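Progress note, project year one: complex with adenosine monophosphate.
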Amino acid sequence: MSERLNPGQTIGILGGGQLGRMLAMAASRLGFHVHIYEPGAAPAGELAGQTTTASYDDKDALEAFARSVDVVTYEFENVPATALDRIEALVPFRPNRKALAVSQDRLTEKNFLQEIGLDVAPYAPVDAAAPDAAARLAQALAEVGMPAILKTRRLGYDGKGQARITNTHDAQPALDAMDGADAILEGFVHFEREISVIAARGMDGRIACFEPGENVHKDGILHTTTVPAQIDSDTRERAFGIAGTILAALDYDGVLGVELFQTDAGLIVNEIAPRVHNSGHWTEAGAVIDQFEQHIRAIAGWTLVDPVRHSDVVMTNLIGDDLDHVPAISTETGTRIHLYGKAEARAGRKMGHVTRITGVARDR
Ligand code: AMP
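Model obtained:
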């Protein structure tokens, strides 16, 4: 049987947030039906033909969902393993579980990246629940150096579950902030800039990378992505090479985001996201194909599109009450607005993004 899905078949998406919503849009454009599985409120739900609202430990709901779709993909990496077991017994699941297992735990991820020959910040595990946690952290600080960042191994995002340690007085409060969770200590990287590569791998093994974007964070949350990044051609090629190495090592199908620090000593991998990524939202306005359609193509067994960038762009996230600026932004020429349809504009919540076209792309 061909692994290629045809229009009219159904794509299941775990997670109904903004990424699921944008994946659903892309899938609909290609003529697929969409079924969203989401335990909470689902901004994606209004764009999908079917939505299941149930928890990830609801065996019956998971099995009914899996039986109703032709492939399952996901918008977030923290899907519980037991839920995946149920789904995978019934229907193909892409990208594969290795990618999820690696990226669910910062320690596993760092070990993996190092094993495949990539550079990462110096790191050491810290068991924050151990009776001698303070001594273990002191030992880790001796190995890694200061300043450093203590991060929870699991479930951190947008800078949550992280604490900076610049002197020994910061150590105990940082441990307390982990709330007993397993942690990893990372040496602080003095980077020139942060860039990311949104890369895709098709089921035929072909790899296609979008132009690297340059990212600026505010309060631990992505603020802007500027494309192209101000990097030389060697750094750009190296960034593509790193993304390709990761995709091939994971035998990956779909889109993956790779966050990199550019330093005097070269590129250091910060983290990988086995899914479409916020720093790839610019692609909907700046390239011939967006990351969402590329992902759907990859998991549906279609040929990937060469992701040529036609415009220089700056993508800005709309966080919380940034939404109030939308009426003014809507009068700008050359600016695309994308809102996620979320009911409540809480502080720190991603409500939408805008992409400003700043020029025509020149060949590099
Ligand atoms: P993360 O959740 O690990 O992506 O961290 C969020 C942001 O914190 C990154 O995009 C960086 O701006 C900063 N950051 C994280 N880890 C480090 C590090 N080891 N050195 C310097 N900055 C970091």
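The mean pLDDT is 95.
Residues 193-360 form a domain with the D-amino Acid Aminotransferase; Chain A, domain 1 fold (CATH 3.30.470.20).
No further modelling is planned for this target in the current period.
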